[in-house]
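User: Please predict structures.

Assistant: First:
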Amino acid sequence: MAGTSAGAVASSLIAAGYTAAEMREIMGTRVDFHKMMDAGALGGVPLIGQWLNLLFHEGFYHGDYFLGVMRQLLREKFGKERVTFSDLIMPKEPTDSEEAYLSRFKYKLHVVASNITRNELMILPQDVARLGVEPDDFEVALAVRISISIPYFFMPLKIAERTNNRGSHWVVDGGLLSNFPIRYFDSPPGATPPWPTFGLLLREPNAGQPHFERIRSLISMTRAMVRTMNTAHDRKALEEADLKRIIKIPTGKYSATDFDLTPADRDWPYESGYRAAREFLDSWSWREYVAERQAVTTER
C-alpha cells in the first residue's frame, strides 16, 4: 500500500490489518473529528489565536490528537507501544531484485511526504536513510502524521539529520508534490505487470481540471499555490489511459478538512466509495488491464 495524506491514513490501517468494517466503525464512533483542530493554549486566544499559532508554530493546529489516535489504533493491532516499519516488513520473493525489494517491496506501507528543506519528495520510511535515520526504526504513526501536514493547517514535523548534523528537515503533506502516487509500483516499460495496481482517488467536483482562483491577498495567493502544487503534478495520472486501475470516488460537497461532520455526513462518502468500487470491479478485466499497461509503459 502507498498513500498520501488521507490516503496514508487508510493505507496504514489496512497494512496494520484493519478491515473495511473496522475502519468504518473507527471513523464513525471512535474518532472525534472536531478534536483534529487542536489549537492548543495559544490558539485559544480569541480572534487571533489561530494566527498566532501560524506565526509562531507555522500551522493553525498541532496535530497531536491525530497522532495519539494513530498510535492507539496501531497499538491495538500489534500489542506494543511504538509500532515501527520493522513491524511491516515483507519477505523477499525469489523474483525480486535486491534493488526492487529494498526500494519498493520490503515494507507493506509506503507513505508520501514533502521535504521542503531539501525541496524533494520523500517515500517513508526508505528515504529517511538519507538523513541518517534507520528506516526500520521509524515510527509508522509519525510517518502518517507527517504526510497529513497540510501546509498552514497542521504544523509541520521536523526530522533531525544525523549524517552531517545540518539541523532539522521540515517535512509536510506529501500532496504538495505527489497527491496520488499510483505509479510507484509500476513495472518497467514494456514489461507485463505481475499483478494489478489499484488506486482509490477521492475526486472532488471538477478535479483534474484547471480551477479558477480568485486571488485578492497574500492568503488567497498562498492557497492558490498550494492547490496548484497539490493537483498539477498528478493530473496526468487521471488521463483516460489509467481508467483500468483508478477507482474515482466522488466526494460531493465534502473536503479533506471538513471536521464537523454529522453521522449522516460521514456515511455519505463511505457509501459513495462503496458504489464507486462496485461499479469499477463489475467491469474490470485483467486482460484489458495488462493490455493497457503494456501500451502505456511502452510509450513512456
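Second:
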Amino acid sequence: MAVDLNDVSESALEFPDNFLLIDLCGEYDRNLSTLEQSYGVQILRRGNQLSVVGEEGPRQEAVATLKALYQRLEAGRSLEAGDIDRELRMGGSSVATPPGPSDQKELFKGDLTARVEIKTRKKLVEPRTEAQKAYVEALFDKELSFGIGPAGTGKTYLAVAVGVNMLISGKVDKIILSRPAVEAGEKLGYLPGDMKDKVDPYMQPLYDALGDFLPGKQMAKMMEEKVIEIAPLAFMRGRTLSNAFVVLDEAQNATSMQMKMFLTRLGQGSRMVITGDRTQIDLPRGVSSGLWDAERLLKHIPKISFNYFTAKDVVRHPLVAAIIDAYEAEDAKKG
C-alpha cells in the first residue's frame, strides 16, 4: 500500500532526565527499534529529544507509548522487554498513576487502560493484554473464576500471583495449588521415591510460578508449615477449603466427577480459580472433560466469572502465538 507523503509528519518529545532517557532508549537503542518496527515509524534521537516521524495514526501511538514508558521510569520502575510488550498491547497509556505504598492490588478505575497490578514479595506483576487485565480484576472480585485459553496466556501465572498477594496482605490464610496428575495414572508406581517424589514432576509448573513471587527460604518455610500446599487433585477429596486461595490448574484433564468434587470444596472466606485449555485434553477417549461440563452448567451463575484467552494473549515467545494460530486453523478445517 502506497504511503501518502502528505500524511507523514514529525513529533518532537523532550525528556528532562538524560539518565532515564538512556534507559528508555535501551542498549544500542534496542527499545526504540522495537517501537519503530511495531508502529512503522522512525525515531530519531537528538540530545535529550526524540523525534518520531511517520503517518499520523502510528506516530501518535508511538508518542503515547514513549510517554507511558518514560512515566514508568520516572515512577522508579524497571523497563524490560515484557514492559514494552505490555504497552504495545495495551495502547501505550497504561501508566497513568504512580504506584501506592500498599501491598494490596492497585486498581485505578476509569478508562479501559487504567492500571491493574499485583504486588508480591519479589516483583510487581502487571497484565499485558486486555484479557489478562479483565482476568486479574475477576480474580480479586469474584469468589470463583475460570480462566480458559491456550498455553502461554498467563492463566496460572497470574492466578498464583494474585494468591500470593492475598496471602501476604492477610486476605487468606493459605494457598492451595492443585493439578490432575493424568499422565501419572499408570506410571506413578514405576517412579522412584515416596508419593511426594512421584507427583512433584507434575506439580513443577506451580512450584516455578511460586518461585517467581516469593523468596526461596520464605517459600520453603510456608510449604513446611502448610501455609502453601501443592497437591494432586485426588488429594482434595473430603476436604473443606476455608480462608484459602485455591487454584486448579490444567482443569481440562479433570473428569466431570473430579470437577464437581473440587468445586464443592469451596469454603467460607476462600477464593477458587480454575484454569485450563480445552484444546489439550489428555483424558482417555470417551471420558468427558470436567472443564467442558463446568462451563456448560455454571455459565448462567452471575457470581462466577468466565474469562477467555486467545493466541493474541500469548505472552511467551512470539512463535508460540503463531504455532497456536496454525493449529487452530487446522482444527477449523477439520471441524
